[in-house]
Amino acid sequence: MTDWLTVERGAAPLIVSVPHAGTDIPSPHDAGMRSVALARRDVDWNVDRLYAFARALDATVIRTAISRSVIDVNRDPSGASLYPGQATTGLCPTTTFMGESLYEDGREPDEAAIAARRATYFDPYHAAIAAEIARLRRDHSPIVLYDAHSIVGEVPRLFEGRLPQFNIGTNDGQSCDPALAIAVAAACPEPKVINGRFKGGWITRHYGRPERGVHAIQMELAIRGYADEAAPDRWDAARAAPMQATLRGVLKACLDFAKGRA
C-alpha cells in the first residue's frame, strides 16, 4: 500500500477494483488546469464507500486515490479508443464528459508528462491487479474481477436519454462466462442492461480471460441510485443503504459463480 494505492487482501475468489473514486490531483499535475473542481467533476463519487462491505465478504479490494483527470487507469495505455466512433475520454483526459476543456490552451500534458504519469500511477495499479490475480489463482479456479464504477445518469455527449440504473459490461461476452453476467443481472432490479453503452473498460477487457479462469465484469451504476446527482460528492449512508444491499447480492452472485465453477 502507498499513499495513493490501497490493496486490501482477502482470500475469496473475488477482486473488486475501484479505479475512479479518487479525488487527489497532486502537484505538479494540477499545473495548467483551468480548475481543480472541474477536474474532479467526473469522479465515481464514493464508490469506495459504496462497496466498503466487500471486505466482509473476504474479497480483495484495490483502489486508487488519484483522480482520473490525472491519469485514467481504466483506459488503453496505447491511447486507442475503447469505443471507436463514440465520444469518450482518454488516458490523460483533456476534457470532461461534457466536453469542457480541463486545461488552459496549450497547457495540456505532453508525451513526456503522460509517460511519467503512466509510470507513476497506471503501471503500479495494474501491477497490483496482476499480482492479486496471480495470488488468488494459486488457490482458486476460477476467480472474478469486478470493476466498480458510477456516473451521472444523463450525459448527452456520451449517450442519449437516461442511463439505466445498472449497466453491466462484459466486452460483448468476451471477458467472462455468460453465466456470470446472467447471475449478476439477476441480482439487479430494473432498469438494467448488459453491454449497453458501457461494455467494460480496459480493466475488464485486458484481464478478462475466461479460458484461463479469470472472469472480468464491469458495473457502471447511475449515481441517482445512491446519491443526489446535484451534489454527488455528499455521502448519505441512509440513502446508499438500499443500493448497498443490492450490491451485496451482486457480489455474492459473483462468489457463488466462482465457487460453483471451482
From TrEMBL:
**Gene3D superfamilies in alphabetical order:** Zn-dependent exopeptidases
Against Pfam families, the record matches this protein to: FGase (PF05013)
Which superkingdom does the taxonomy of this entry point to?
Bacteria
Q: Which NCBIfam families match?
A: hutG_amidohyd
Protein name, please?
Formiminoglutamase
Q: What organism is listed for this UniProt entry? A: Hephaestia caeni
Lineage runs: Bacteria, Pseudomonadati, Pseudomonadota, Alphaproteobacteria, Sphingomonadales
